[in-house]
Specification:
445 residues; alpha+beta; 8-stranded mixed β-sheet; two-stranded antiparallel sheet; 12 strands
């Protein structure tokens, strides 16, 4: 083992991490009594790459029961989040830290590992996926590098720890993580040896749960260099392995990313997923059987959450018809009434991408949509308003309400009661309408 050196800038970033009061307190407690604890994984990697640090993970020689006892003695909260694998979550002033006893693999099957505890940081490092994730930071500021992690972090190179084939056979999810970390942390070209191993072993992805696949895919799509990573996955057949028979439309996703950047919008994983998998094919017109079938298949294959399914369904139904600036705003309004402002914006952006709208047209659409997003219109009609007409409860009254709302949307979602009266008068001549009241006959003569 040889401690890795760092530049002044990196050293300053590492000191800033270690001097966080909550982390410093936890490391002091865990390092007592002959035990050693270090910051590991993403916090070290991102600090060295001068990126924002998210969650902080700690590896320790102490056994879980020792960690739990010491933490409770401090009055901190401890949760046995993965106690069977030696992991507990320590919460200090509302900030969680994942603390895991050092481990070595006893056996692996491509999905999960049976582990044993160790006191050797090197053993623990060599079971990790990539060199940039195998670094550890000691309390004295020393970065311990058991491979090429320090140099790879500085170069933006995503490289498997040890032999790529070995790491992948331990857990086939590492194929997807290879591309995901390339998209989020890679600035160098794809590691050729790692790419070749992914191509050879891609069939192993079939062993993974769909939930784990979904998690990695959505993280990958949100990364800065997602398009290049998706293209590389297509080149070696990864997407075809994951989603057989579902067409991949990378051009549509490119358009989504360009629109998000050009309009200053934050990205959304389901928006990008919809662009990639529902694409811009004319066969995917609003309400088409093919679109519904594809959406159902995507939902099943990726085990999307209920909320994610709702967004994808809205996009399948409404992300169309935005080809020109002269199209009535009612298209967007219908989506807004049926969903919510956030989902309606997703539908608009995917629709613009599918129609290959340029930045000028997209800006024009966003300008028209912004007032509705900021102040969503309220439907001015209720079923109760139709009771005095003698329209019975149930489907007939519901259909009447639906038609009134559709007419109001086509009319431009006006908030003017006079416009509402005109809409209903056209449906039922000879009647007058008072909002929230009942229908009254118009007196003649």
């Amino acid at each position: 083992m040889s401690p890795a050196s760092s530049s002044a800038e990196h050293a300053q970033a590492l000191r800033a991490l270690l001097t966080r009061p909550d982390l410093a307190q936890l490391l002091t407690v865990l390092n007592a009594g002959g035990e050693e604890a270090r910051v590991v994984g993403g916090a070290v990697r991102d600090t060295l790459m001068l990126r924002p640090v998210g969650d902080i993970d700690i590896a320790t020689t102490a056994l879980p029961e020792t960690v739990i006892r010491r933490v409770k003695d401090q009055g901190w909260k401890v949760v046995p989040t993965g106690i069977e694998h030696g992991t507990v979550t320590v919460v200090i002033n509302g900030v969680p830290f994942e603390v895991t006893t050092l481990r070595r693999d006893v056996s692996t099957d491509g999905r999960r590992a049976i582990v044993a505890f160790t006191r050797d940081f090197a053993e623990d490092a060599f079971r990790r996926d990539f060199t940039i994730n195998a670094l550890s930071l000691a309390v004295d500021g020393t970065v311990h590098d058991y491979s090429t992690g320090m140099a790879d972090a500085r170069a933006g190179l995503v490289r498997f720890m040890g032999t790529p084939e070995t790491r992948i056979r331990e857990d086939y999810l590492r194929i997807l993580r290879f591309f995901r970390f390339q998209a989020s942390h890679g600035s160098a070209a794809l590691d050729a040896e790692g790419l070749a191993a992914c191509a050879v072993l891609k069939a192993g992805l079939g062993q993974l749960s769909r939930e784990r696949i979904r998690q990695e895919i959505l993280k990958l799509l949100m990364a800065n260099a997602a398009i290049a990573a998706v293209q590389s996955m297509l080149d070696i057949g990864i997407w075809q392995e994951l989603l057989p028979d579902i067409p991949i439309n990378l051009d549509s996703m490119r358009h989504i990313v360009a629109l998000e950047n050009g309009l200053g919008l934050s990205s959304h994983p389901i928006r990008r997923l919809a662009a990639l998998l529902l694409g811009s094919n004319e066969a995917l017109a609003k309400g088409s059987t093919q679109a519904k079938s594809l959406r159902a298949e995507i939902t099943a294959l990726l085990r999307l959450s209920r909320k994610e399914q709702t967004v994808l369904t809205a996009i399948e139904r409404h992300a169309t018809g935005f080809e020109g600036a002269d199209v009535a705003i009612s298209l967007f309004g219908a989506c807004l009434i049926e969903t919510n402002p956030e989902t309606a914006l997703d539908c608009l952006i995917v629709g613009l991408a599918r129609s290959k709208a340029d930045r000028v047209l997209a800006k024009a659409w966003l300008k028209r949509a912004r007032p509705l997003l900021e102040n969503p219109p309220s439907v001015p009609f209720r079923q109760l308003d139709f009771a005095a007409l003698g329209i019975g409860e149930g489907p007939e009254r519901g259909q009447f309400l639906k038609q009134a709302i559709e007419n109001w949307i086509r009319d431009g979602l006006s908030d003017d009661p006079a416009r509402h009266q005109a809409i209903l008068a056209a449906m039922l001549p000879g009647k007058t309408w008072l909002p929230g009241k009942t229908w009254l006959p118009v007196k003649i003569g």
